Amino acid sequence: MLSSVLLADSPEFSVAAVRCGGHRSAWSATEAAARYEIVLVRSGRFRLRRAGREAVVDPTRGYVQAPGDEASFAHPAGGDVCTAISLSTGFWRAVTDDARPATRPAVPVDGRLDLAHRRLLRSTSDVAFAMAEELVGLLTEVLRRAADAGTVRPHRPARGPGLADQAREAILADHPDATGLVTLARLLGVSPSHLSRVFHRETGLTLTRYRNRVRAGRALDRIEQGAHNLAEVAADLGFADQAHLARTVKTEFGRTSTEIRRLLGAVR
Predict the structure, then answer these.
(1) pTM of the predicted model, to two decimals?
(2) Cα dist. 132→19, 101, 120, 126, 226 in Å?
(3) Distance between CA 68 and CA 20 in Å, rounded?
């Protein structure tokens, strides 16, 4: 079941919260985009197939599409919540000076882009200025990461996800064997060195950095929801201690936990 709530609307862009509930392992019918669109995931994950390529889309990876781009979707892991940002052609070209986005089906979402996404959603009370300004910054960051992703070799089209995506899905699902390189490699039926090498080649990240990105994002969720006991958050998310959490948050988001609280309005 798909539902959409419009968060902001203007002649140049709209922002909607899109929720997809339930499991659907089969691919959907092909859908064609009507406008330029950026899709970023708040929670959950799903699979995207476009132009002969497949990708897992989750809070660490979004995607961009242009009018007429066709894609199919599958939800084998259950529901998800996304932000769908729809842009007019005039707005897109004014910001990008480009007629089309990158053709890769997915865009890496690092900590700084994640933070820009959250700040955008906090700016709905002033669509004409505050949200437009946040959106220009977010779009610039999205396109920069799309360009950077072009230097990373994507996995070949295959039946089902490639090795890197399987590893990502296991980490995102908190699989018991995804707590270490050796056990994760054993789960996926490959050697640790092969898994490490392929993951870095296909994502541009080490497994360690990817796992920290996921855990830092979950910490940010807790901070945004008003959590004050960071030692407790660190323990819940598997960090060695609060200092380890603080270092990881600063590395991933470029801000301290206190600064992030202020940016997201978690403290007054």
Answers:
(1) 0.85
(2) 23, 19, 9, 8, 26
(3) 22
CA-based torsion, 170, 79, 62, 232: positive or negative = negative
Going by pLDDT thresholds of 50, 70 and 90, the confidence category of residue 118 is: very high
Sequence letter at residue 245: L
pLDDT tens for each residue of 6-62: 999 999 999 999 999 877 888 999 999 999 999 999 999 999 998 888 889 999 999
Both structure tokens of 220: 């940010």
Structure tokens at 44: 């959950």
Burial, 64: exposed, middle or buried (Cβ in 10 Å; 0-12, 13-18, 19+)?
Answer: buried
Geometric angle at alpha carbon 207, from 240 and 56, rounded to 5°? 120
Question: Are 263 and 117 a contacting pair, CB within 8 Å?
Answer: no
Give Cα separations from 6 to 17, 36, 59, 125 (angstroms).
6, 17, 20, 13
Q: For residue 237, list its beta bridge partners.
A: none
Helix (H, G, I), strand (E, B) or coil at 248: helix
